[in-house]
Amino acid sequence: MVARIVLCRLKAGTTDDEVRALTAAFREAVVGAPGLLRFHLGIRIPEGAPLQPAPAAEGQPYDYAIVFEFETAAALRIFEHRPAHDAVRRRLAAMAETFSAANYEM
Description:
Alpha-Beta Plaits; about 35% helix
């Protein structure tokens, strides 16, 4: 199995409606993706809440986490070239102050 993990810090001023729309777009983008086993998406736990995450390397926590789990690296490569993924990736990039993505063989 191959996991892609994406962490993102959203630009200041990003609204809850924009985050909800982005979340819906990601959920739509994964429908029917060959070889996709699981997909998880989460918003950072607010500061002061139990289970508050550790800060990102730059000192500020990431706001948004996305985890894709694929059967194989080939399935991940196919997903990367799907038009639905490309559109939502561009949308995330436009909303992001910074983000980090990495692939892991599990």
